[in-house]
UniProtKB/TrEMBL annotation:
Biased composition (Polar residues): 144-157, 233-253
Region named Disordered: 130-157, 233-269
UniProt superkingdom: Eukaryota
Compositional bias per record (Basic residues), positions renumbered to this chain: 130-141
Protein name: Coiled-coil domain-containing protein 137
UniProt cross-references to InterPro entries, sorted A to Z: CCDC137 (IPR026680)
Length: 288
């Protein structure tokens, strides 16, 4: 709604709140409140940290040897002695930290004995936390295994499952799923078949007769005579064929050399064959 009098309009709540905050900041009231809250929170956190640190007090530092130059001692000797003492001190501290031991000495500096250190509370707490993390992880794994107990498959089982899935996909995608006999075969254009497919079936291997001999399998004298006759007939037929081949070769016309040297009848026959081949090739070209 448009105001009736534009000069006299009611101030909105947000604007009035902003004006109040502005006045408070000018007077210095708003910042003091915020500072008080911050100080209170800081003090609380500091107290909590100090309480925690009181439990885990730092280890007492090993007393560092004081280097004082002896009377009638040159600067070179003093420096050499300082170097020996410092290296000895560093090695001693490393030994103590390695074996968790404290070396006790006299006022004169001689070693009295070796005492084992007390277990550090901080280190124990860190170890406990690490153990808890490990146990939590193990518990989570056990829970998941209990909730989902699936038997582990071997490689062959996985492979067979994949093959089954592939087969099912193919069956779902095909048009005739119900019966494989009525599936359509897509034949490519120009694919020619001259006969039915030749199925190669492995021959049945006959087993040797066990026990009594079967009829027609006995080794008789008659069989050996028939076999010898067959061998003789085979040799005669081979000799006849060889003789006929030799005769044909002698009577055959030699087609080598130039065509003009050949007889007229043979030349006509060759020309006719050549013409037929050319015409067949032209017909194939025109069809394409």
């Amino acid at each position: 709604m448009a105001p009736s009098d534009p000069d006299n309009q009611q101030i909105s709540n947000r604007l009035s709140r902003l004006i109040e905050l502005k006045n408070q900041t000018k007077e210095g009231l708003f910042d003091k409140r915020r500072k008080k809250k911050k100080l209170e929170t800081k003090n609380k956190t500091n107290d909590a940290i100090l309480n925690k640190l009181d439990k885990f007090k730092a280890k007492p530092i090993k007393p560092i040897p004081k280097f004082v130059q002896k009377p009638n001692e040159s600067d070179k000797q003093f420096k050499h002695r300082m170097e020996i003492m410092s290296t000895q001190y560093i090695k001693e501290v490393a030994f103590e930290n390695k074996y968790n031991v404290d070396i006790k000495r006299n006022k004169s500096g001689e070693v009295e004995g070796v005492v084992k250190r007390k277990k550090d509370e901080l280190e124990l707490l860190v170890k406990q936390l690490k153990k808890q993390k490990k146990t939590n992880k193990k518990n989570k794994k056990n829970q998941t295994s209990e909730s989902v107990e699936q038997p582990r498959l071997t490689k062959s089982q996985k492979w067979s499952l994949k093959q089954l899935e592939k087969k099912n996909k193919k069956l779902n995608n095909s048009d005739d799923v119900h019966d494989s006999r009525f599936r359509k075969e897509t034949i490519a254009f120009g694919d020619v078949v001259h006969g039915p497919p030749s199925l190669t079936v492995p021959k049945k291997v006959m087993q040797k007769p066990e026990g009594a001999a079967r009829p027609g399998r006995k080794d008789l004298l008659l069989k050996s005579i028939i076999a010898s006759n067959k061998d003789q007939s085979a040799t005669t037929t081979i000799t006849k064929r060889n003789s006929t081949k030799i005769a044909d070769n002698s009577s055959a016309i030699n087609k080598k050399g130039k065509r003009k040297d050949l007889p007229n009848a043979l030349r006509r026959q060759l020309d006719k064959q050549q013409q037929e081949i050319i015409e067949a090739y032209r017909n194939l070209k025109s069809k394409k």
